[in-house]
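Data availability excerpt. The first of two example chains:
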Amino acid sequence: MSRRSASFWDIDWWTVAIYFGLAMIGWFMIYAAGYDPSAPTGFFDLNTEAGKQGLFLLLSALIGSAILLIEPQFFKTISFIIYGVAIFLLLMVMAYGAATNGALSWFSLPGGFKFQPSELAKFATCLALATYLSTNNTVKDSRTAITAIGIFLLPAVLVVLQGDPGSALIFFALMIPLFREGMTPIIYIAAAVFILLFILGLMYNPVQVLIFVMLLGSLVAIANLTPQLWWRLSLAALILGSILFFKEHTLYVLGASTAYLLVALIVNFTKRKKELASFLMVAVLVMSGFTYSVNYLFYNVLESHQRDRINVWLMPEKADPRGSYYNLRQSKLAIGSGGLWGKKYLKGEMTQGNFVPEQHTDFIFTVVGEEQGFMGTFGVIILYLALLLRISMVAERQRSRFTRVYAYGIAGIFSIHLLVNIGMTMGVMPVIGIPLPLMSYGGSSLLSFTVMIAVLLRFDSQRLLVFR
């Protein structure tokens, strides 16, 4: 393979086209979000968000093009150096950064520009994780798995300490490449269970959640028994579960469900299935303790603005309609008012009237919803899904484990950003201040996603070569 073909003609141009399509749509939506009919400005006016975003787009295109000229091995060689620099910046921003929306996570730059180190950390962590896994045999080894988790857990903790748990959540997207490389699914199941318990613990009485824990443990216990006994006990569980509708009897149901669990565990012991029974005993005790600690965590660990965001998501009746709930209510109204085809570009009353706060950043999707309607939002989502599909296809055709891990890391980061941002504008996810990739206003975010994609394209251009 010639150097020319590896560096240019083998670039995945479908990915490039989708990238530019989303970036340009974002630029037009940012312009619409700041458009004032009484005093219209140009797209390149640097005094506006749209003008600055145009500058970021040009800079991103230049940086992305430059990356395509660099040898892929270079990024792997310096991956831990970039990771170290990112960790250093995350530490420095806590001492010298500027506070924005309660988070100390930005460096102020001349000209009114800002830089968020956590955006660089996403790329650096993804690169470092790919390098580490490419030099170790398997994530099924506990030491390798713990080290791999530690690589993305360190920046996540530092971002949480900055007061930005939303951005910290993104680093857990790197569990996706670990799963692809063979990590046990028990970890993912356990994480899903504890997230569910946290949500249930906030929405319901702890006794009711404890009953759920007991029944869940019982069903897992009987799933390992003979089919005949499984069906008998499942029928009993169904009858017992139906009693939960009678809330005044929750204490009696708790006692019955606990007894039911003990019977299921005893049956497992008598059938010499002690390992499962012992595991379930410990798991139920841990989950029960966690259930009763949820309220303490919520009211004593989380900050007030973080509690407000969760209330807006799970319990809007407890949120202030003129305070914490205002953003989400206005976001829903803007998206819903667009109808099927939207109100047309620059014709959105709520957008031009500035009724939706942070509309050019976190709530940029509402501009699409109001002015382009359901069809416009559907088209944008299709473009994002096409990008994720393309990245996954790129990942699977690699001969290099390093590139495959890196590609799935990028896919995971994009997926979480997409899911949370669009979800929070519609009230199905908490409002945690995560930008919409390539579309939200912000140089740090745009440059970070551009570098991620450009490096992946450079790796993919030499996929036929042996590149460990």
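And the second chain:
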Amino acid sequence: MGCRGSGSDSRLVTAQADRENPLLIRYGTTTEGKRVEIARIYTVEEHGIRRSRIDARALSVTSRLTAAGFQAYVVGGAVRDLLVGKTPKDFDIATDAHPRRVRKLFWSSRIIGKRFRLVHVELEGKIVEVSTFRSLSGQNEFGTIEEDAARRDFTLNALYYSPEKEQIIDYVGGFEDVKARRIRSLLPIDTTFVEDPVRMVRAVKYSVGTGFELPQKLKLKIKKSSGELAQCPASRMTEEIFKILQSGNAAGVFQLGIELDLFPYMLISIDAEIKKGRGKDGAARFLESVRTIDASILAEPEVSRGRMIVALVDPFIALPGVAPRDRTAFTREVFKGIKETIRPITPPNSDVEEAVRLLLDARGLPPPVKPRRRRRRGRQS
């Protein structure tokens, strides 16, 4: 049933669901001209999210976009986290403004992405990510808010919060799913993980982060489809692993990933090392190390990637008890050892170098020697 967009063909009315609970419903029309419900709108009295709970920088972005005549919503994980009583780490924005238009509204911004363009707006040292509504075409094209909601992975991530009206717009039943503590795939379960295997990792992350149990059918499908993760590019897996480490729930996510056979594809070399350490014993040492980062994130949210890498590799990197004679060669070997241990993720070398320094310091060894840069000789006349 094809619905038109939420422009002139869309109506917002109060529908009397029962005498005590009136609902705000957004209607549209099908291509045949039939009037249909396309979204439910929840007021602050129903969802409890006050504008004051939204990060001031995100509010600044939505306010400027709406003042310029565009739609602008806090979307995805931030809305989910607020509904379950958590403080979001990031407040992403969705809008109908095209990236170039967003870029013109914010001088401290830049357009990123090769296929689908996003805008990173920098305000007070913080990045606010702004994305334009995406279409259902699968061709990385812009679309309507209805299409944008329908193409998201799980219903709990497809909620749109309007700071201006303090309302949540729900096109997919995500609000009721959050209230019922449900994780429900928006796309058919038989194809969603084939289309994008990283959705399996995200399902695990959402389950641990919210405390919602994964449905048994979803667990079985993830376990059966885990091998699809082998097709995931290293860059995407790197992004996901660091998001997990930044969540404060990394130990729980990795533990559930081990149970569902995802972990061998998330951190290949560490999985092999865990299995060398007699299975459960190796996993216990690894998870205990990761919990140090979880504790640090709760105490101080800005934890460097170097520290995160140390937590991953610390149980598996063997170092001598005394300083080696050739410190330069030794530093190089530690660097290579860390890179091999964290395969397939590929963080910048600067992050790995920081991990080398922190690891040597933790083991009571002298800091690495910085390689000397050769001076370039000028041309002789």
